Amino acid sequence: MTDPNLVFIMPDQLRPDFLGCYGADFVATPHIDALAARGVRFTRAYSEHPICVPARAALLTGMHALRTGVLDNGQALRPDYAACGIATWPETLAARGYECAAIGKMHFYPWDARLGFGYRRVAEDKRWLHVRDDYYHFLRAHGERKYHGAEHAGYHEHKGAIVNRLPRELQPDAFVGAEACRFIRAYGADGPFALMVGFPGPHCPYDPAPESLAGLDPAAMPEPIPDAGDTPRLREGNIAANRRPWNGVDYAEFSREQMLRVRAHYAALVRQIDDEVGAIVAALGEAGLLENTVIIFASDHGDYLGDHGLIGKGHFYESSFHVPLIVAPPGGAGAVVRDDLVALTDVTATLLRLGGAGVPAYLDARPLPGVGIAGATGRERLIGALGGGWMIQEGPWRLAKYATGEATLYNLDEDPHEGRNRLADPACAAVTRALDGQLTSIVMDLMVESHFPERVYVQDLSQDPAFGREGWRRRYPHARGDG
Q1: Which residues have a Cβ under 8 Å from the Cβ of 394 and sit 6 or more positions away?
Q2: What number is the average pLDDT over the span 145-172?
Q3: pLDDT range class, residue 433, cuts 50, 70, 90
Q4: FRET partner for 187 with CA separation of 20 to 30 A, picked from 27, 322, 327, 425?
Q5: Alpha carbon distance 259, 53 (integer Å)
Q6: In a domain, 474, yes or no
Q7: How far is CA 362 from the centre of its chain?
Q8: Which whole number is the average pLDDT over 1-5?
Q9: DSSP H/E element including 411
Q10: Is 433 left (phi over 0), alpha (psi -120 to 50) or beta?
Q11: Nearest to 101 by CA among 198, 212, 208, 243
């Protein structure tokens, strides 16, 4: 068998419970559901770093964010990462002869960086109005431009739930889908390829085409999870972040009706992405490539959509960091459902192994179980980290600690909607101590690892004669794999 083609499809900010294959009965997603019907669907997949750039930097490198140093959207991989002994997954697969392509939103700094992708067509997210990417030039060629959400009627009144001024065929997700199909038709037969498709949606603004909203009744949307009121400072920070110019919406007052409207518009964006996924699969089939292509579908994080009184993402609640994850192998696996605990970053090790490459020892990613990779297993625990919070999940328990000074402890088996914070419950004191001790120990280890480039040595230099001579200089940065 020749090396398989690899297609990694990643919408931005898609939560699993808005997909039919994950139980949604209020929006039709037949094409994504079809991937699940012939593949492996993971029910317990989480983004350990549920913000755009940290999640994507972890995916590129297969490394935990506490080791990449990318913990918020204002940070990026250090430019000398190669000198540190680090390779991105497209760099590794390109060295094996893969044509590596990135289409759509990648959220690199700078935005037109390649980071191992030989082919790029860029459509950054809907908030970057001044980025002169390929989508910008596409719009110019059609006499149009990018619009801020606030340039649409009802933007503030409806908390970002609007109807896009652009026709559907000119919207960013349609552009990305068309460009992915164009790549497949033009280059798919040239040899093995690894294609990452980053849809800008269903990230806010919640701006579908009017025809996509047809039949989606806000009253039929799932009810938002109430705010328990035990993390008020998290909500204050969430409100403040969304008041900034990139969004400009004030969620201090966020009614149930507004939440349900947002959910209906979000569902319409999901429906649009589902159509593009169908077009990509169809293009693979028409090109005769589907029987030698692995398709992986996942998202970088979720979206609260009003759950806990919040919007967007950035904390360790289910709505924010539980993600869909589907792997559809050539020929199909037959609607397999796995409840293994896995991390989004495990996609990186899976791509490497499926592409015939080894998994470097420094990676935190591990191959996903159940997709045909020998020895692959799920995880005993997850460690989440962002600039404003840490999290450990093990068994039914999830402990999260935030820079606000607030913390939460939930038993997910008993309380799947995270409505009862058990942190102060005396019956849970032993669980809290055990989880907190593990979290502290692991974070300490990761922090030491994050400064590997500053290391003078791995092995003891006390017996090295060269170290004792005048003029000895240490290597900087210290590269992984060096002694």
Answers
A1: 380, 381, 382, 435, 438
A2: 97
A3: very high
A4: 327
A5: 26
A6: no
A7: 21
A8: 84
A9: strand 407-411
A10: alpha
A11: 198
What is the rounded average pLDDT of the residues 39-67? Answer: 98
- How many domains does the structure of the chain reveal? 2
Residue range 76-123, pLDDT digits in tens: 999 999 999 999 999 999 999 999 999 999 999 999 999 999 999 999
Listed residue (388, 3, 24, 10) closest to 173, CA to CA? 10
Q: Are residues 412 and 352 in the same domain?
A: no
Question: What's the pLDDT tens digit per position in 218-230?
Answer: 999 999 999 999 9
Instruction: Burial-class residue 192 by CB neighbours within 10 Å (0-12, 13-18, 19+).
Output: buried
Determine contact, residues 113/207, Cβ cutoff 8 Å. Answer: no
- The pTM score is 0.97
Q: Is the confidence at residue 483, as pLDDT, over 70?
A: no
What's the angle, vertex CA 243, arms to CA 237 and CA 248, rounded to 5?
155
311 Cβ neighbours under 8 A, 6+ residues apart: 159, 160, 204, 238, 242, 249, 251, 254, 262, 303, 304, 305
Name the CA dihedral angle for 397, 403, 406, 410, rounded to a multiple of 10 degrees. -10
Check whether residue 198 and residue 251 sit in a common domain: yes
SS3 call for 461? coil
Mean pLDDT of the chain: 96
- Which residue type occupies 19? L
Question: Average pLDDT in the 182-205 region?
Answer: 97
- Assess if residue 286 is contained within a domain: yes
- The values of phi and psi at residue 455, to 5°, are -65, 140
135: amino acid identity, one letter:
Y
Q: How many CB atoms lie within 10 A of CB 217?
A: 10
Task: Give backbone dihedrals phi and psi of 481, rounded to 5 degrees, phi first.
Answer: 100, -15
**Domain limit, last residue, from 328, 351, 382:** 382
Closest CA to 161 of 309, 260, 273: 260
Say if residue 376 is in the same domain as residue 394.
no
Residue 354, classed as helix, strand or coil, is helix
